[in-house]
Amino acid sequence: QVQLVESGGGLVQAGGSLRLSCAASGRFFSINAMGWYRQAPGKERELVGVSTSGGNTNYADSVKGRFTVSRDNAKNTVYLQMNNLKPEDTAVYYCNAYVITTLFRAANEYWGQGTQVTVSS
Q1: DSSP result, 33-96
Q2: Which of 121, 119, 117 is nearest to 20 (CA)?
């Protein structure tokens, strides 16, 4: 069993910054890709930014230059540093990871419960 727990969400003024954390816990061998998605009310869930096991990152066009995904493999934790926040960034942010839980099995996808980020104008 694997759990992904997000933290760091909240209310912030436009132009401000926020840092989200996601820690993986449970029984597993390793984590491959790890990153963040978000979903606003009435909209589809979309990619925000991800980090691969090789250290590569990619971001949605809407957050490039403002958001940064970083990763601490020793702590099985991924972070999302959000700067220059805009009202349109308001959404529930979900941690996502591909986790190797057993030998001889492909990676399984896991999701966190989500953390609310609200940006006021």
Answers
A1: EEEEEEE-TTS--EEEEEE-TTS-EEE-TTTTTTEEEEEEGGGTEEEEEE-S--GGG-EEEEEE
A2: 117
Confidence of residue 103 (pLDDT cuts 50, 70, 90): confident
Q: Write out pLDDT tens, residues 6-32.
A: 999 999 999 999 999 999 999 999 999
Q: For residue 32, what is the DSSP state?
A: E
SS3 3: strand
Is beta strand 91-100 parallel, antiparallel or unpaired with respect to 77-82? unpaired
Joined together, the tokens standing for residue 73 give 């493999």
